[in-house]
Amino acid sequence: MKRALVFAITCVAAALSTVPARAAPADPLGSPMWDHHAARLFGKDPVVFDSRVAVRIPGIAENQRVFPVTIDARTLPDVRRIVLLADLNPIPVAVDYRPAGAEPFIASRIKLDQRTPVRAAVQTGDGTWHVGGTWIDAAGGGCSAPPVSRVKGDWADHLGEIRAGRWAEGPGETRLRITFRHPMDTGLVENIAAYNIEHVTIRDGDGRSLGEMEVFGSVAEDPAFTVLVKATGTISFEARDTAGLRFAGKVGA
User: Fold this and answer.
1) Domain 24-251 has what CATH class?
2) Do residues 112 and 85 make contact, with C-beta atoms less than 8 angstroms apart?
3) How far apart are CA 78 and CA 123, in angstroms?
4) From CA 215, how far away is CA 199, in angstroms rounded?
5) Residue ranges of the domains in the chain?
6) What is the pTM of this model?
7) Which of 41, 107, 205, 237 has the most C-beta neighbours closer than 10 Å?
8) Beta strand extents in the chain (DSSP E only)
């Protein structure tokens, strides 16, 4: 009896292990990398393509090293996470943002290595991922070209310098823009190791988190981030890079 029970449990476990992950919906952009990224990023979570996820980009990539992207998901309820990615980049994910005391809105600049879909994947409180995006033509090489500051040789002289500004966006809401001087090396340039800002935290005057983001090497050199936070007093922020260096600042009311 005991042996039969063990056999039955083993068979059930084997059957469960063969259950496939939830299949992502067919990609309206027809990207050759969609299934791979969907499986890696979303796992078994439900995924829908949603026009409420606005990805605003220029019509043409004038500079593949510095390409501006704005993601606005304010018409979605209960947003927990925003992922910015470019399917065909060697480092596809650029920013993984978790707004807390902030609106589901972020703008930044990324590198483009070739023609690629640029997307935003937005997760709501029920676990569903809402995806929006479009193709962009790019000359290529943005991820494999050395940063300008490396070419000039002055990157270490300005490492960690910060510029920040804030503007009242509405009652109790502030538009915050932060720029850090950093080479954001991808590791794809010969003799230059990967070295980038990897984490940014934004807090209000009482130390409460307004938002946190994981940052990757496909974000452009001297990374800039614009967010909408629900705060009117002092706002502080801190960045940490892959060498463990920390760069912090704040802007007053």
Assistant:
1) mainly beta
2) no
3) 9
4) 6
5) 24-251
6) 0.90
7) 237
8) 47-49, 54-56, 67-72, 79-86, 93-99, 102-110, 116-124, 129-136, 162-170, 173-180, 197-204, 209-215, 224-229, 235-241, 246-251
